[in-house]
Amino acid sequence: MMNPCRAGRVGGLLYLVTVLVAGGAAGCLQYDWQHDFERGEAQAREQNKDMFIFYKYYLDSDSNRMLSSEVLSDPEIVSLFQDTINVLIDSSFGPQYEAYVARFGVSSYPASILVAPNGQYETLKGFVPKQRFIEFVRDFRRKHAPAEPAAEP
Predict the structure, then answer these.
(1) 11: which of 46, 60, 74, 146 lies 20 to 30 Å off by Cα?
(2) How far is CA 20 from the centre of its chain?
(3) Contact call for residues 113 and 52 (beta carbons, < 8 A)
(4) pLDDT (tens digit per residue) in 72-116
(5) How far apart are CA 139 and CA 133, in angstroms?
(6) What's the CATH fold of domain 30-143?
């Protein structure tokens, strides 16, 4: 298969399509990536769900490493995001997308942003190994878990 770190935009897209089709055929979990930030944000608000934003640049080797099976495409990590609104933003999409992630203090890629339904967020910048990423997600969910309703006497 083609190496997305060395491939151009079209080559990288073909690689991604091949991986997604092959993964889908094998019954693997996959992300339901949105590419429209405003639509994803509205959906997360309407459904009272966390939003996961991954900000990248298609030619950046660290962005591609994060998207690979080394981190984000690992089944254990994919399973963590089956009940979230997932938004994938490439800086080449245009300056309006840079403005979206700037709201979360992000100006470089790759960056992972988790946003709770109440608007509180945390960011993780740069490439991080799988285990560190899992800790980031679990810590976020512990801190921002919805309050349990009080038990009736």
Answers:
(1) 74
(2) 15
(3) yes
(4) 999 999 999 999 999 999 988 888 888 888 899 888 999 999 999
(5) 10
(6) Glutaredoxin (3.40.30)
